Amino acid sequence: MSGLLGFSRLVDSINTRIGQWMSWLILAAVIVSTVNAIIRKLFDVSSNAWLELQWVLFGVVFLLCSPWTLLSNEHIRIDIVNSMLPKRGRDWIDVFGHVFFLLPLTIVMLITSVPFALRSYGINEQSQNAGGLPQWPAKFLVPIAFFLLFFQGLSELIKRIAIMRGDLADTASGGGHHASAEAEAARLLAAAGLEPAPETKTH
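Given the sequence above, the corresponding structure tokens read:
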């Protein structure tokens, strides 16, 4: 399990770094949108390339930050039934969902999107709008995103199994390596007398 957890930490580190970098593109999209709107209003000039750049930037953030979102447990969850189940039941639902839904979906998307992107690149696909951007770079975002999401799904599965075995700490935010760091920080603060010691969980 230690080897798998090491792999999980590596995946988490890579997707966290990518997510943090790509999140800056939200600011870039806002700037592009603002400048484009100002120029259009003041000079009655517009550009399809700048308009499409806004969409591409949004697509980059949405797709390439999705593994980071999963890692941070910030994805949308329907917890009406899940919240009424015991901890063990919720853990098994997470394992089942990753094995039979998330991972198979990422594999299907990889199998279908790679030829889709390569075909677009092969014909140097361009925008149908005058003066628009090439289309193939945006289409390559799909296989890249699902490749990263596949490995993040594996990482989450490893962590959930480790949590069920008692090898890894768990928190309300989803547990895992960050939870272990949080637990250690809380222990050090408690030892320094700055806050109460966290309750010990058994698995």
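The radius of gyration is 21 Å. Try to locate this feature in the token string yourself.
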